[in-house]
C-alpha cells in the first residue's frame, strides 16, 4: 500500500442514513433526490485530464481516524458517500469540481475565487462578502414566475389552487413531450433523469407522501416507482433503472396518482391540514413517523414544481440538439 493509499483509507467513515439533514421539510430538492432527514451525502465528482492518477473513494473505504493530505495530486478523484465534516482545505485547487447532492451546511470560505460558478439547491443564510444573498435569489425567482409564490400555501384553499396550477403546467409540458421522438423521452441530459424517469419518480413521491404517509397504505408502490438515487435499497420498494416504459404507460399510472392527490386536496379543510398522520410501520418511505398533512403536501408540491422545471430545461436541450 502506498502512503497515499494509506492516507486516503484513514479518512473518516461516512455516516449512515441517520440525520445528515436534520429537517425533513427543508425545501431542498436535488435532481434525482427527494430531500429528507435520512439520506446520505453523495460527494463530488471532478473530471480532469486523463494524464492524472484517478482515485475512487467511497464511505466503505474509511476508518475512524482523520487523514492529512498535503501535496497530494488527487485530480480526477471521485468521492461518494464520504464524510468530510470539519475538513479543512487550504491552498487547494478545486477548479471545475462538481458537487452533487452534498450537504454544505456551515461551510466557511475565505479568500476564495468564485468565478464562473453555478449553484442550484437550497440556500439559507448564504452570506457573500457580508451580504445574505438568499432573500434576493428567492425574490428574483418569485418575480420570474409569479406562480412560484403559490407553491407555498398556508390554508386549504391555497393548496387547492396550487394543485390546479400543477396539473395545468404539467399538462402543457406533456403535450410538448408528445411531439418529440419517443426515444428522446428516455434520453438523459447531463446525467440527469430522462423525462420518463422524472414522471416515474413523481409517482414514487405521490405514493410515499400521499398514499403511504397520509392515507396509511404501507406498501403503495407500483413496479415503475423510481426512488431518488441516494435512497438505500429497501425491501418491497422497486428501483428498476433499466425498464423503458412508453410515455402512455407512465402517464396512465401518473394520472391515477394525480387524481388521488386531487381527491385528498379537494376534501381539505384548514383543520384537516393541521392534522398529524399516524406512523406507518414497515419498510418504505417516509419512515414510521408522524407528519402534519400540511408538511406531506408541501413535499408533493415542491417535487411537482421543481421536477417540472428540470424537465422543461432538459426538453429544451433535447429539442435544440434535434434541430441542430
Please state the CA-atom Rg, rounded to the nearest Å: 21 Å
Which residues sit in consecutive blocks of at least 5 with pLDDT less than 50? Answer: 1-54
CATH topology of the largest domain: Four Helix Bundle (Hemerythrin (Met), subunit A)
Alpha carbon gap, first and last residue: 50 Å
User: What count of domains describes the coordinates?
Assistant: 2
Average pLDDT works out at: 82
Number of helices: 7
Find the count of extended strands (DSSP E, 2+ residues): 6
**Biggest sheet: strands side by side, in what order?**
1-2
CATH domain class of the largest domain:
Mainly Alpha
What percentage of the residues does DSSP assign to strands (E)?
under 5%
What characteristic shape results from the CA principal axes?
Answer: globular
Q: How would you spell out the order of helices and strands?
A: HEEEEEEHHHHHH
The CATH homologous superfamily of the largest domain is called dinb family like domain
Please identify the structural class as seen in this structure.
mainly alpha
- The CATH architecture of the largest domain: Up-down Bundle
Characterization of this structure:
The chain folds into 2 domains: 1-103, no CATH class; 146-323, dinb family like domain (Four Helix Bundle (Hemerythrin (Met), subunit A)), CATH 1.20.120.450. It contains 7 helices and 6 strands, in the order αββββββαααααα. The protein has helices at 3-9, 134-144, 156-178, 195-212, 247-266, 270-274, 293-323; strands at 29-30, 33-34, 56-58, 78-80, 127-128, 131-132. The strands form 3 sheets. Strands 1-2 form a two-stranded antiparallel sheet. Strands 3-4 form a two-stranded parallel ribbon. It has a two-stranded antiparallel sheet with strand order 5-6. Strand 5 (127-128) and strand 6 (131-132) form a beta hairpin. The model is unreliable at 1-54 (pLDDT under 50).
